[in-house]
Amino acid sequence: MPLLTRGLLKHHSAVATASPDLDFSARPNQGIEIGNQTAPHPEAGKRSSLILASYNIRYAVGRYLIQSGLLRKIGYNFPRPRAEAVARNIQTAARAFSVNGLLPPPDILALQEADKETGRAGGQHVAARLAAELGVPYVHVGAGIPRGVEPKQREWWLNFEEQIALHDSGDTGVALLSRLPLAEITRIDLPWHDCAWRPRLAMGATIDFGGDKLRLFNVHIDPHGPLDNQHQQTEAVLEHADQHLGPSVILGDFNTLSKQKAVEIRKLMESRGYATPFQTGTATWRGAGLRFHADWIFVRGVRVVGSGVVKPLNVSDHWPIWAEITTE
Q: CB 211: neighbour CB atoms within 10 A?
């Protein structure tokens, strides 16, 4: 078995399952797709510092979440042509993560809203195409969007997102693009309450780092409902992290779309021994003049020696965030 897939594929039970045929936990691969594999560098596990980055790429459709949502209501859905626009945005992201100096080239890039061949992504497999542009392997974990299930009515301020069509054969999900070998790849389905039609999930993976095993968790927390719902999802990830005895990093889109939610998620994570290099209130998402601290990197058992938010980059309504970690 390749090193990328070595280890158990574990599953955290969700509150409910939308449809038996979409219960990825019952499938042999649990919705986990591995691609673009390359031979690992023999010195990869001996690194004493790593660059980690996280990006809710919003299926590479661009930054205008609220404006595009309003335009769809009057019958205009941009950008057009969609496939070409998404492909250009992926190329722009690849340049940002490799050669243009906005951030150090990441060793590991965590993606959220990484659509796989949906109509809204122009049929593009976002993680696979970005990995190909960067020349790195990827692991994609599909959310398992229910087919033919009407979305539940949401709060108006969360109703701007373009939904995956009812019978779209594609999917969305989270992904890790990594220059280092990944092991013990794990699907973590998160408990949900208000949006059963949009399952939320996280993924875990282990890398050799500085003579130890570093456990990484890429999360995409649901913005719907009260703060308690978000904390239940975060606690589900923390339960998995607590099973690992070595250092761990939890990063991704926590959807802390208010000052209170940002303050409270930091309190929760710090109460469990995690630290973050970002000041509470650091803007990582923007829309229609609003700014929120939605994306985070939390570490335990390693030290952060550099970090930042990648501005400007207009591939998504989020900005990527990054941190350099070290064992020294």
A: 9
